[in-house]
Amino acid sequence: MPNAPRTRSSYRRWLLPLATVVGLLAALVLWSLPHLSHDPRSAAGDTTEQHPPGPPWRYGQADARFTVIEYADLECPYCQAYAPVLRKWIDQHPDVSLQWHHLPLPMHEPMATRLARLAECVGEAQGHAGFWKAVTWIYQHTRSDGQGLPAGLDYPDQDQVVQACLASERPDVIIRAQADEARQAGVMATPTLRLLDHKSGQSLIVAGPAEGDTLLSALDLLAATDATRPTTELSADDVSDMPR
Q1: Domain of life here (predicted)?
Q2: How is the beta sheet containing 203-207 ordered, strand by strand?
Q3: Are strands 203-207 and 233-234 parallel, antiparallel or unpaired?
Q4: pTM of the prediction?
Q5: Which residue from 9, 51, 117, 198 could staple onto 58, CB 3.0 to 4.6 Å apart?
Q6: CATH superfamily of 65-226
């Protein structure tokens, strides 16, 4: 017996479920695309809140093998020029994170400490991302070399929490402790970098501003160091002997 011709109602019976399935599949693909294309390691600034709250302030992946500690002065013109370069380099190397270490230089006082207090208090109120935002803003607006911000110019995000912090001694304690620690380690100039390999336990001090090739050579040197040896401060002169 020949098959009966299909009517509009019979087409509708199987087209409606098919359209539903196709729609669900399309929605699933569209939902998954951003997750497949977005690598969180490509934007270190998006990961700052992975770190424990409070100082020392960090930028980049919390589980990075290497950490670059930057000893910096917010009135140092060399730090001012180097800051965006170093952060861009960190963005490009997800196995390296950045840590800030205050070292206000006597020649830039009292403005260096005053701006360090501002950055600390913004960090206290707004976390790691807020701290780095404040550092960026300060370097964009300071006249540097101890001259500070132009008269009448204030940081725009000073809420009551920031103001309460500035009225306290909390930022001074942190800044003095970090500056004393730097001087005890023999760091007297800014910017200076200390590179840490969390796997080998070794560290290396490099005078900044260091170019990307120099940083990579230093990291190669740390990675090649025997992890069974006790932690030592490697000579920065060894970095120049590394192949580029």
Answers
A1: Bacteria
A2: 58-59, 96-102, 66-72, 192-197, 203-207, 233-234
A3: parallel
A4: 0.75
A5: 51
A6: Glutaredoxin (3.40.30.10)
